[in-house]
Specification:
Layout: H1 2-12, E1 20-21, E2 27-31, H2 36-39, E3 40-43, E4 46-52, E5 54-59, E6 62-66, E7 70-74, E8 78-85, E9 94-99, H3 102-109, E10 125-129, H4 132-143, H5 151-168, H6 172-179, H7 184-197, H8 205-211, H9 216-227, H10 231-248, H11 254-260, H12 266-277, H13 281-292
Antiparallel strand pairs: 1-2, 2-9, 3-8, 4-7, 4-9, 5-6, 5-8, 7-10
Helix pairs in contact: 1-4, 3-6, 4-5, 5-6, 6-7, 8-9
Domain HTH araC/xylS-type: 189-287
InterPro entries: Homeodomain-like_sf (IPR009057), HTH_AraC (IPR018060), Tscrpt_reg_HTH_AraC_N (IPR009594)
Pfam family, one: HTH_18
Length: 297
Amino acid sequence: MNTSLDELRRLAARAQNRATPTGIPRVAMVQGEIPQHKLAAIYSPMINLILTGSKTMTVGDRTFRYDPATYFVMSVDLPAVGSVHPSEAGEPYLAVSLTLEPSIVANLLADLPKPAGGELYSSGFSVAPVTDELLDAWVRMLRLMDRPDDIPALAPAYERELLYRVLQGPHGWMLRDIAAPGTALSRIGVTIRWIRENFTTPLKVEALASMAALSISAFHRHFKAVTALSPLQYQKRIRLLHARSMLIAGEGNTTSVAFGVGYESPTQFSREYSRFFGLPPSKDTREIVRAIQPALT
């Protein structure tokens, strides 16, 4: 395992402190200290493997820490807050990720034996130790960065191998459920996508429950189990994260942005923004802009 990890670290060492493209579809890498505001985001479904350092991820009231040789699977779009840390020896944080494409997972599942039923109440995210087989698949995938002409022919096969190895592990049911229509996770995923695309619209839980083909009480239970948030909390997090991005980009003041993301009261917006990010909107924005644009100070 150590040999494979060392090779992965060498291959990914060219990454920057942001999601760095590799030239391989859906595969990215990141290295170093990441600005804190970038780690409070809406995370897409992915497999994330830590190579050096560690990462803490908080979703709702659940916090996970993952270290080298562990991987994180997120099976639905989730608003989360993260932090990354160097290794004890001072080496910078380093990680690689594969964005999940349900259609590719579904095509792979069509070639595999059908498993038992899914886990109705399980979370949409979790951490597990990596296996030698999964590491070897990652090595083959990242080696393609040095052989770009091989990417069209070999990357799809290596991606299937990566997904197959995850399917064999404790997160396998997650991949099965996001790709299989009618499972609890896929039905909750439909409502999550609707909220993301319509986050400025007032939330009607009855309509979402109907969309998921669940009773209102069952929908609440399943939604909270998957996301660690209630539907209303999920919508609020999406609104606040969008609002923060708009404020940093200078796309309006606190009042206009509050209305723009769906709040009816700027006062309520400021209160919830402060509770989530730890500072009022104007002060939070000034500090972030000062950090990313030193010339403005």
